[in-house]
Design goal:
single chain; 3-stranded antiparallel β-sheet; 12 helices; 290 residues; 5 strands; mainly alpha
Length: 290
């Protein structure tokens, strides 16, 4: 197969075009419209989770002992790199989007190193790997990158726009406070709820406009953050069940991840969104009142 063939629009690009190109459908009303929009919204959300979905499927099917002498964590890193390279090669992600995703890797990996350090030990990665650095397997950065990839993909597929977004400098300060608190709460107290209250006030008027079918729908931006955080919390429960990592209370036997982690993930989503909003083509769809 030639290079040109590989880079020409393929199945996913045709699917994206089918999902995104809809003419008006005034004949759809009532529960029929609700059902059509609900199903299409679910399909578009699943499509936006392409990277995360493929990566978590890899987690489920990769044996804990690894394959062909390759430890599990190393194999997951290889799979994640191949998925990322494929998305770039097929232009499902642009180079600018890839640069933003790389930033998620750096931010996530630094947090992982701190949280798994001997002095903190919030969680740990129990298995051996050649690609562990400071006790953290390198594939872990892709888990944070998956959140950024989802937001970037959903933005395009759902034709997302933001109304009444706060000034970028304020959003950036809140994002920095969120990230900093993940480190400092071990030493000077957890100010998560104060920061959350600040974020709620900051994004109180912000609205997500999206298009599941042929009409725009709206959702409070804070609700969108909370919902994404919830699904990440679910994914975390699945990952710890498969012993990708575990918390201290899960060493003897698996138990549900504490519900309080939902709030942490929601705050992380806010921080991730702030990074995504730095992309030029996304800023063009964000309205900031003057």
């Amino acid at each position: 197969m030639s290079t040109a063939t590989l880079r020409n629009p393929g199945l996913l690009q045709r699917l994206d075009a089918l999902l995104m190109d809809h003419g008006p459908a005034p004949q759809l009303t009532g529960y029929k419209r609700f059902c059509v929009e609900f199903v299409l919204f679910g399909i578009k959300e699943a499509r936006a989770c392409l990277f995360a979905g493929l990566f978590f499927v890899s987690i489920f099917i990769t044996p804990r002992e690894g394959l062909y002498g390759i430890p599990r964590y190393d194999l997951l890193l290889l799979i994640a790199v191949l998925i990322q390279a494929w998305m770039l090669w097929t232009r499902l992600e642009t180079l600018d989007e890839f640069k933003a995703i790389c930033l998620f890797h750096v931010v996530g990996f630094a947090l992982e190193v701190f949280k798994t350090s001997g002095a903190i030990q919030s969680w740990s990665y129990p298995d051996f790997a050649h690609t562990k650095v400071l006790g953290v397997p390198l594939f872990s950065g892709f888990m944070y990158a998956a959140v950024g990839s989802y937001i970037i993909q959903a933005w395009r597929i759902l034709d997302v726009r933001i109304e009444h977004h706060p000034p970028y400098w304020m959003a950036t300060l809140v994002a920095l406070a969120i990230y900093g608190n993940f480190f400092t709460h071990h030493y000077i107290g957890d100010y998560r709820w104060y920061i959350a209250a600040l974020a709620i006030g900051l994004y109180a008027r912000a609205t997500v406009v999206y298009r599941p079918y042929d009409r725009d729908r709206k959702m409070p931006m804070i609700l969108a953050f909370i919902l994404i955080g919830f699904f990440i919390w679910l994914a975390e429960n699945i990952s710890t069940f498969f012993a990708i990592w575990h918390y201290p209370n899960q060493i003897g036997a698996w138990s549900t991840v504490h519900l309080g982690k939902w709030s942490s993930w929601t705050l992380l989503v806010i921080m991730t969104f702030t990074i995504v909003a730095s992309l030029k083509h996304i800023r063009d769809t964000i309205h900031i009142p003057k």
